[in-house]
Amino acid sequence: MPRNRPIEISTNTFHRSHGRAPKGHGAWGFIVMDYSGLRFPGREVETFFAPAMTLTDAKVWAKSYVREHYAAELKKDHVDLEVAP
To answer: Strand 79-83 relative to strand 9-10: parallel, antiparallel, unpaired?
Structure first.
């Protein structure tokens, strides 16, 4: 079975909103971005929140969530994540 491509997680929106990179412990929000077609910077598909945990653990949790709920889009290389501001 072929391995899924890595899911990119961008922090640009968070950084622009808060003036710093995200870090620490909390209930982190993530935005699923669809880059199908010629859409750039992409279309927001869903926003969801991880349970309270470190950002590192939340990224792992969010990638798992996306692999489970957006498998078809991942195969087409159309989906990535953004840390919500």
So the answer is: parallel
Q: Kindly state the DSSP code that residue 52 receives in the 8-state scheme.
A: S
Asked if residue 2 is part of any domain, the answer here is no
What whole-number distance in Å separates Cα of residue 53 and Cα of residue 24?
8
Q: How many domains does the chain have?
A: 1
Is 1 domain-assigned? no
- Per-residue tens of pLDDT for the chain, all 85 residues: 345 668 899 999 999 999 999 999 999 999 998 877 665 667 888 999 999 999 999 999 999 999 999 888 777 777 889 999 9
* E runs forming strands in the chain: 9-10, 25-26, 29-34, 43-49, 53-54, 79-83
- The pTM for the full model equals 0.84
Note down the domain range covering 25.
9-83
